[in-house]
Amino acid sequence: MLEATNSPSETTVPANAALAAEAKIARIAVTIFPILVVVAGVLGFLLPDLFKPLGVTVPYLLGVIMFCMGLTLTPPDFASVARRPWAVALGIVAHYVIMPGAGWLIAVLLQLPPELAVGLILVGCAPSGTASNVMAFLAKGDVALSVAVASVSTLIAPLVTPALTLLLAGSFLHIDADAMVLDIVKTVLLPVIAGLLARLFLSKMVAKVLPALPWASAVVISLIVAIVVAGSASKIVAAGGIVFLAVVLHNGFGLGLGYLAGKLGRLDDKARRALAFEVGMQNSGLAATLATAHFSALAALPSAVFSLWHNISGAIVAAWLARRPLKG
Fold it and tell me: Which of 1, 46, 67, 326 is most buried, most CB within 10 Å of its CB?
């Protein structure tokens, strides 16, 4: 995640040289990230016997990603929630209404098999993606708002994600919501809190590794994708086309309706751009982890495809928005 140490009126300008360097590295990482994910997916498909045994490590790998996210958080990030409660609340509600609802609707309209339907809905019920802040930065959006929405959506995920999954996907497969809550606490909440505490008490040490965090997250997420693809390699040829269509539609709804939600909420253009990414980009690593643990490798396939596609579409949309003047 990109730090939001600057003021809301200067959310697209790095506040100091260190942040400028971090932003540059983050921009490069986001550019190369889709390539890493594609390569990882291909390797997982071609060498399933190599990656499939690593399935037991996926929760720990996700914990690493969330710990890295915690390292990027600072008290001012949470203070921005108190300063702008309406904008943050709107982003949270839009995220947890639009994406779960869109996932359910697409699954029904495309008549997806139960495992794929649950996998798509689970992606929609996940918190914001870890790269959404960088996309907001590249799009000249409100980075402070982006960080606040991503942070809050992650912290409330242990309660919201299982509840929404049970509500929307319970008709497709049995959902053990209680076990899911525990898994999210262990793989998301605790690592984020540990990272935040490390940032508070080991600030000098953490400052040295901050520029490398986007790369660390990119590599670990790519490894998760390889493992997930390897687990369902035998079924990808048959299911890949419909899953890709579902994911493209899902992500497109999120990006477009996220921006529209900001417009309907009378937010400025910077905030609308931020909400587009906070709604449309999901923590697909968490969705893949939960799908693998609670359902099957096939149910995790939408998460793997989403991990690839939302970074490609996000980079494209961010580049397009960056070239458009901010509206008053």
Answer: 1
